[in-house]
């Protein structure tokens, strides 16, 4: 029981230490795999990772700490998009989908600005 409590305390401490200014390092800790694409736009960026047949994406806001509308979506060709949308202070996502060897479309939004990849990773 003590080990479980200490594990939770360490995890909470790491989240506080990393904080919202961690940028790309934060995205890397949220998604498994290697970074394959960064889709930048005026209010943020959407970072795409791949590991095996899985694709993961997270949208990061340029201006953190302020609650604002954000979203990220990943769609494997032939499937419906998987979306995380809401009012967040740092990021939307991560979203992970199994794409196999199919193309994917990734979209990100922060505030009124957005980005779309088109079909990628084919």
Automatic annotation (TrEMBL):
Signal peptide: 1-27
Superkingdom assignment: Bacteria
Record keywords, A-Z: Signal
The protein's name in its UniProt record: Secreted protein
Organism name: Streptomyces kunmingensis
